[in-house]
Design a protein that fits this description.
Elements lengths: L1 H40 L1 H20 L1 H4 L20 E3 L5 E3 L2 H9 L19 H13 L2
Antiparallel strand pairs: 1-2
The structure holds heme C (HEC).
Length: about 140
């Protein structure tokens, strides 16, 4: 009598354990994977869209007077910024440079370091690093 009771007890315990392990696997499977997928696919694109929008607001208050609406440029005044990334820019020192992030950042922060041929030097505007970053996102979004 006693041994039957013992057997039933350990049987119930193992059913309970198997049940717990399965529940654990299901919970882990449901909660972790979708969360990771969302991080990888949605986050980066929304971040750069938000930055580009912030950059547009800054551009429209601080840069538009010289570089024109949507970075189209103003002949004789300031060069276009549309399509700047990856393009070849002729400088006053006779060299040609391929415009990348670093070049655009320097053009904004230290305009006299490299001057585009055919224009006066852009004035030093005291743009912060954070503002320069979103302005670059905006410039890259111009097509
Ligand atoms: C007072 C007019 C003026 C304002 C305001 C101005 N720029 Fe410029 N910018 C220029 C001129 C002129 C040049 C070309 C000469 C040079 O390279 O310094 C230039 C060049 C540049 C270049 C390099 C373009 C190329 O073809 O290589 C970038 C990038 C740029 N400006 C970004 C900006 C941004 C961003 C702002 C706003 C924060 C701004 N500029 C405000 C006049 C201006």
């Amino acid at each position: 009598m006693l041994s039957i009771f013992k057997k039933t007890g350990s049987y119930q315990l193992s059913v309970l354990l198997v049940g717990l392990v399965f529940t654990g696997l299901i919970v882990a499977g449901c909660t972790q994977k979708p969360a990771k997928k969302q991080d990888a696919t949605i986050a980066p694109s929304t971040t750069s869209t938000v930055s580009a929008e912030k950059g547009k607001k800054l551009y429209d208050t601080r840069c538009i007077e010289c570089h024109g609406r949507n970075g189209k440029g103003v002949p004789g005044d300031a060069p276009p910024l549309q399509g700047l990334v990856g393009s070849h820019v002729k400088l006053t020192d006779g060299t040609t440079i391929t415009a990348d992030d670093a070049y655009i950042l320097q053009s904004i922060k230290k305009p006299d370091a490299k001057v585009v041929k055919g224009y006066n030097v852009m004035p030093q505007l005291g743009v912060s690093d954070a503002d320069a970053k979103v302005l670059i996102e905006y410039i890259k979004s111009l097509k």
